[in-house]
Design a protein that fits this description.
Strand content: 35-45%
Order of helices and strands: EEEEEEEEEEHEEEE
Strand order of the largest sheet: 4-5-6-7-14-13-12-11
Structural class: mainly beta
Shape: globular
Largest sheet: 8 strands, antiparallel
Number of strands: 14
């Protein structure tokens, strides 16, 4: 599976390209030919495909995909994800653009500052299964797709 070729459709609450929420995840999956950085806890596994800017959360018991994160920057470097929602929202879209296209968010807040960092990050989410975390310049630094309601 490659994320560098043709554009990938981001569908809130459902999928990013061929990655489908709720479907079993195949351990041999590679994005753009790079192996992921893996972290585990008791309930889920997180797979970060650094070169693709894709962060997957997998249920440890069922091996099903719980959420898909799309990063705009990683370790200070901008990533170039080739895809967007039907309305044109993509990593790097501004908070104002997102609200203009999707309307008022269902939830908003700010995350706590990370250790040794002096900034907190604002976020918003929509009940249809899409959430955004914003950088200091109010751009979507992370888009997360999760099961909506």
């Amino acid at each position: 599976m490659s994320f560098s070729g043709h554009p990938r459709l981001i569908v809130p609450g459902s999928r990013v390209g061929e990655l489908l929420l709720g479907k079993p995840f195949l351990a041999k999956t590679k994005l753009d030919g790079y192996k992921p950085r893996v972290s585990h806890d008791l309930n889920e596994r997180s797979l970060l495909f650094e070169a693709s800017g894709i962060d997957l959360c997998i249920d440890a018991r069922t091996n099903k995909l719980k959420s898909i994160g799309i990063l705009f920057t990683l370790a200070g470097q901008r990533l170039d994800f080739n895809g967007a929602t039907v309305s044109g929202i993509r990593p790097g879209s501004t908070e104002a653009e997102i609200i203009e296209k999707l309307g008022k968010p269902d939830k908003v807040g700010s995350s706590y500052p990370m250790p040794r960092k002096r900034m907190s990050r604002s976020w918003c989410s929509y009940d249809n299964g899409i959430a955004f975390e914003f950088s200091a310049d109010k751009r979507a630094d992370l888009i997360t797709i999760f099961p909506g309601h």
